[in-house]
């Protein structure tokens, strides 16, 4: 699949601009510095829907990653296979004007505006690549994938990072939501230190603001957690298999 740029409509450009303008004002004091730096390096602007070809040229030079066009949510194997090969799956379609505030399935604004700038951070993409290799290994094991999805959810999608003793956002699910940007950094939800066993034991919902957030100290810490993720996942899968046999 590929992005067919000439198929974008006037409404598509309006939607991109509205979403961009509405969120960009919140991010200087909310987003991780690495996201803001990446946003400048990639060159996203309000008046132009990003070209995947142009974005790929920039990304490849920085971290070796590129975007892979997908129609929407893809099967686990496809998702993990792409990212284990440094290809981030992204949609090319944009939500309608009537869906500005909530969309059940991620669109291009979420996939590109929220995810792509942080793909310029080497430690972060190293984490994505290694996490995806674990996912490939366990594909077909629904229990293991569920536990792994919790790590992805509470980091890549809804993670916070501590920078200069302040909480900042790096999770794309928050970065693409003006409402959750403010909520996640407020005193209302609890904030917990990043902890692999706790996260992998924590359920989540997709249709509401999160009721808790986990905070990392650095992207190196995130990447450094891969051995613990492997070990804990292996332990839990073994326990589940033993329980089934008995």
Give an account of the 3D structure.
The protein is of the alpha/beta class and 246 residues long. It has a single domain (5-245), classed as Aromatic amino acid hydroxylase (Phenylalanine Hydroxylase, Orthogonal Bundle), CATH 1.10.800.10. The chain has helices at 10-24, 33-42, 52-62, 76-84, 108-114, 122-138, 142-157, 172-175, 178-184, 196-200, 219-224, 226-245; strands at 66-69, 87-90, 160-163, 166-169, 191-193, 213-216. Helix 4 (76-84) crosses helix 6. It is globular. The N and C termini lie far apart (47 Å). 36% of the residues are buried.
Features:
246 residues, alpha/beta, Phenylalanine Hydroxylase, four-stranded mixed beta sheet, two-stranded parallel sheet, 12 helices, 6 strands, 9% strand, globular
Largest sheet: 4 strands, mixed
Low-confidence stretches: none
Write the H/E string, N to C. Answer: HHHEHEHHHEEHHEHEHH
**Oligomer state of the chains in this structure:** single chain
Give the strand line-up of the largest sheet: 4-3-6-5
Sum up the overall morphology in one term.
Answer: globular
DSSP, total strands: 6
Report, as a whole number of angstroms, the end-to-end distance: 47 Å
**Amount of helix:** 40-55%
Strand content: 5-15%
What does the radius of gyration come to?
Answer: 18 Å
Draw up the topology in text:
Elements: H1 10-24, H2 33-42, H3 52-62, E1 66-69, H4 76-84, E2 87-90, H5 108-114, H6 122-138, H7 142-157, E3 160-163, E4 166-169, H8 172-175, H9 178-184, E5 191-193, H10 196-200, E6 213-216, H11 219-224, H12 226-245
Parallel strand pairs: 1-2, 3-6, 5-6
Antiparallel strand pairs: 3-4
């Amino acid at each position: 699949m590929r992005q067919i740029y000439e198929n974008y409509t006037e409404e598509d450009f309006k939607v991109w601009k509205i979403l961009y303008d509405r969120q960009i004002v919140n991010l200087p004091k909310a987003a991780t510095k690495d996201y803001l730096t990446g946003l400048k390096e990639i060159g996203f602007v309000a008046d132009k829907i990003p070209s995947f070809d142009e974005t790929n040229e920039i990304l490849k030079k920085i971290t070796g990653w590129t975007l892979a066009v997908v129609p929407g949510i893809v099967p686990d194997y496809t998702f993990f296979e792409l990212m284990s090969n440094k290809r981030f799956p992204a949609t090319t379609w944009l939500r309608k004007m009537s869906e500005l505030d909530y969309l059940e399935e991620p669109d291009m604004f979420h996939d590109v505006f929220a995810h792509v700038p942080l793909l310029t951070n080497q430690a972060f993409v190293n984490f994505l690549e290694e996490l995806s290799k674990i996912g490939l290994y366990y594909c077909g094991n629904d229990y293991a994938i569920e536990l792994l999805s919790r790590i992805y959810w509470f980091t890549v999608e809804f993670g916070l990072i501590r920078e200069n003793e302040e909480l900042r956002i790096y999770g794309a699910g928050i970065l693409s939501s003006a409402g959750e940007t403010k909520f996640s950094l407020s005193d209302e939800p609890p904030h917990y230190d990043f902890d692999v066993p706790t996260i992998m034991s924590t359920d989540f919902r997709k249709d509401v603001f999160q009721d808790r957030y986990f905070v990392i100290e650095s992207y190196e810490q995130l990447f450094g957690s891969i051995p613990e993720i492997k070990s804990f996942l292996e332990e839990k899968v073994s326990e589940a298999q033993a329980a089934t046999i008995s």
